[in-house]
Amino acid sequence: MLIRQTVHIKKNNNALSINGIVIIIFYIFETSLRIHHIKEIDVVDIISRNNLIYYENSTSFNIYDFCSQPQSSCLPPFIDISEEFVRKIITVPKYKLLNCVMPKCFSTTTTKVFSYLYDPEKYQTFEWNHNGISSTSHENDYSSVENFLQNTQTPQDELKNWRMSVFIRDPLDRFISAFINKCYIEREYISPGLMYPGKELCYGCQTNLTCFMLKQYKRSFMYGKRMTKFTGYEDQHTYPQNWFCNFKKFKKQYKIYKTYSDRKGIENYNKNILEMLDKRNIDDDKIKYIVDNILMEFSRKKRELKYDIIMKYIYNGIINDIKNYHKLPIILKNEILSTPLLYKTFISTYYQDYLQFSFNFPKPNFTESHITL
């Protein structure tokens, strides 16, 4: 009897082993096929499918026609970025505050405000470094709204009692800010292989705008098609904003604040933060601390870097070595708006951001051959 059972178990184990091998072979085949397909993607060909359709005998065109063309190169809206390590939802349960931290939209300052409100004592003894870790990391932050609801056992209907907010930014302004920060500055001091094994930040493009835009569009295109599930460091700062914050499901519940990088934009950001806090009846002494120690630091024309002194010198040294650093945003913006390929790539990537958040589309500085409507 024991021998029969042993034989039966061995047969089952053999069957399981065969099934396991088949699954592994199928997975390898599927992965190889996907890699081959990815290599075959011709970004320039995809972008070239869309034309700027000009009115007859005119230099104006209807931007809304751009993404309605057959086999459009435009990215789809509301692709939820859902990765556990990307913790973009921050909360202060005491005041029922929830914010979706949008990268490159004053995210560091917003995180500091929420971290302070969550645990003032811990915030004041925390040494902030340039590593994305807050004083309350993994205490009041979550990968998504639904992750927050599940982990805190909060009914979705309860969200109506919360102040849900998000700061967003003009897509062109945000993209250029990300490109300068990652490809001109951080690339110089973040070691190759730290983000991706054997590769440097910005995909080896260094400061080549065309190279970076095409590679980043390809990554966005693949993510939108679900051909890849991994979200990289550059992706986090350049993917369309409508892909964050679970906007597809919760957009109507957010109070959406528009931000800009100029002085007026910073003033409006500070005003919006204080308005948000005032409506939750937060103590005056806490608001005063935020104004004096977080918003004031953020508003200085020359903001000091609070992380270690060596990092400060490295950062400032890199900036000083960049030719025309303070003019870079204008130079790069003109390059995008003056180059048909770059402009089409940009609009293909961020069309839905302009549409969903009612930003004014940037106008190109060129005209193509007129196409009669």
TrEMBL record:
Listed GO biological process terms: chondroitin sulfate proteoglycan biosynthetic process; positive regulation of response to oxidative stress
Any coiled-coil regions, as ranges: none
Positions of transmembrane segments: 12-29
Keyword annotations: Membrane, Transmembrane, Transmembrane helix
InterPro entries associated with the record: Chst-1-like, Sulfotransferase
GO CC, any one term: membrane
Pfam short name (any one): Sulfotransfer_2
Keyword Cell cycle: no
Database matches in PANTHER family: PROTEIN CBG14245, PROTEIN CBG14245-RELATED
Name by which UniProt lists this protein: Sulfotransferase family-containing protein
Organism name: Strongyloides venezuelensis
Lineage: Eukaryota, Metazoa, Ecdysozoa, Nematoda, Chromadorea
